[in-house]
Specification:
Keywords: Coiled coil. The protein is mainly α. The chain contains 14 helices and six strands.
Length: 398
């Protein structure tokens, strides 16, 4: 123990403790030194990066300044060159105005330059050499104008030749396209119209065929210049021959494609109707309508179906009031009492009356007996044997 001046006692460090403390102090010093070196390296690296950025920025500014200076120099050079060219052009124009004669005064410089494109370079070089060898300016000028005129004539002939070739090729292409269109239309349409084709015979119904053609053209959105062509492919036999004769009369030489482009569909159908439609059909329909009450009709539905077909015939000549009275007189007797007042109403139409009568008939028709198929086959029901067949008995006007 060691006594201090203050009266306290302490014990000195041992050798081992002193060595440990010295090692701790040394480690702390080394760690601080390492931290200091790391900080210095980071600072140096940051300064180096800043210097590099500064150098790059200076390099960019220097390059931009050089480019700007070069652009200004180029602009100045172009401006100077344009001034020289403009002054030279003024002098050349003045000299040219003096040299151009009156008989070529209306020809533009652009036409001369265009004509030179049709002349081989060797020929132009030969002319330039020939003109350079001439001493007389008048002779040189005359020779130059003579050559220019020759070149212009050559250019016009070449243009005309090319224009004719283009027109010929265009006509050939159009003809091929028309043929392809006709063949394509025939291949596409002909199979569809095989069962509906109209041949011009008396037993064929032209009105139904016309309605089918108009419906098909509307639903398929056929172009107006192709409508007659479509209608032609719905013809056969004598009707098709008549359509070809119409094309010949129109100067289309049996080409229905060209005839279709110049002929409206209504006009084509009108010509066909005048040629093949039965002029007595309307008269016969009128006669049948006028005498329809002479038959004994047991069903209003059957009566309406027959009258509808007759009314659809054009030019039958029967008025709406007459149709109402004819239908009322021809309907089954059991229904007349229910519709007498209706038939006498003002403004009543045949369609309205006939539909109402048919509807009333269908609702008022009673069913008395039903025989169902295979319903307990062979058994007795009300004294009858049930068979395999399906039948029903109705009472009424039907």
């Amino acid at each position: 123990m060691v006594e201090t001046r203050g009266g306290t006692s302490t014990s000195p460090y041992t050798q081992e403790q002193q060595e440990k403390m010295a090692a701790i102090v040394r480690e702390n010093r080394e760690r601080k030194e390492l931290l200091k070196q790391a900080k210095l390296k980071a600072i140096a690296k940051e300064q180096a990066a800043k210097m590099k950025e500064l150098e790059e920025e200076m390099e960019k500014k220097k390059k931009a300044a050089e480019e700007e200076a070069a652009a200004e120099a180029e602009a100045e050079r172009k401006r100077t060159g344009k001034e020289k060219e403009s002054s030279g052009a003024i002098k050349a124009a003045a000299e040219m105005e003096k040299k151009i004669s009156e008989w070529i005064a209306n020809l533009s410089l652009g036409e001369d330059e265009e004509a030179e494109f049709y002349v081989p370079k060797d020929e132009r070089d030969a002319l330039a050499s020939q003109l350079a060898a001439m001493e007389d300016p008048l002779e040189r000028r005359e020779r130059e104008e003579e050559k220019k005129l020759e070149w212009k004539l050559r250019m016009k002939r070449e243009k005309k030749k090319r224009r004719e070739q283009v027109n010929r090729l265009t006509a050939e292409v159009a003809k091929v396209q028309d043929c392809r269109r006709e063949v394509g239309a025939q291949a596409d349409i002909l199979p569809r119209w095989t069962r509906y084709a109209y041949g011009g015979k008396k037993k064929e119904n032209f009105d139904n065929w016309e309605a089918s053609v108009n419906s098909y053209i509307y639903l398929q959105h056929i172009l107006s210049e192709e409508q007659v062509l479509v209608a032609f492919h719905a013809l056969k036999d004598e009707a098709a021959s008549f359509a070809r004769s119409l094309a010949r009369e129109a100067g289309c030489e049996n080409t229905l494609v060209a005839y279709s482009k110049v002929t409206p569909l209504p006009q084509f159908l009108k010509l066909l109707k005048e040629r093949f439609a039965d002029p007595t059909r309307g008269v016969r329909a009128s006669d049948k309508l006028q005498t329809i009450h002479s038959r004994q009709w047991r069903s209003a539905r059957a009566l309406k179906g027959t009258m509808d077909d007759l009314v659809a015939v054009p030019d039958h000549g029967v008025t709406e009031t007459q149709l109402v009275q004819l239908f009322y007189r021809a309907m089954p007797e059991a229904l007349r009492g229910h519709f007498f007042d209706k038939s006498q109403q003002a403004g009543i139409t045949y369609d309205a009356l006939s539909r109402e009568v048919v509807l009333y008939e269908s609702k008022s028709m009673p069913v008395t007996t039903f025989w169902h198929r295979d319903l307990d086959k062979g058994k007795k029901w009300k004294g009858r044997t049930i068979s395999r067949q399906c039948c029903s008995n109705y009472k009424g006007t039907g």
